[in-house]
Amino acid sequence: MKIALFTETFLPKVDGIVTRLRHTVEHLQRQGDRVLVICPDGGMTEYKGASIYGVSGFPLPLYPELKMALPRPSIGQALEDFQPDIIHVVNPAVLGLAGIFHGKLHNIPLVASYHTHLPQYLQHYGLGMLEGFLWELLKAGHNQAALNLCTSTAMVEELSSHGIERVDLWQRGVDTETFHPQQASDEMRSHLSQNHPESPLLLYVGRLSAEKEIERIKPILEAIPDARLALVGDGPHRQALEEHFAGTNTHFVGYLVGDELAAAFASADAFIFPSRTETLGLVLLEAMAAGCPVVAARSGGIPDIVTDGVNGYLFEPSSGDEGAIAATLRLLEQKQERETIRQNARQEAEKWGWAAATRQLQNYYHQVVYTELPKVA
Question: Which end of the chain is flanked by fewer CB atoms within 10 Å, N or C?
Answer without folding.
Answer: C
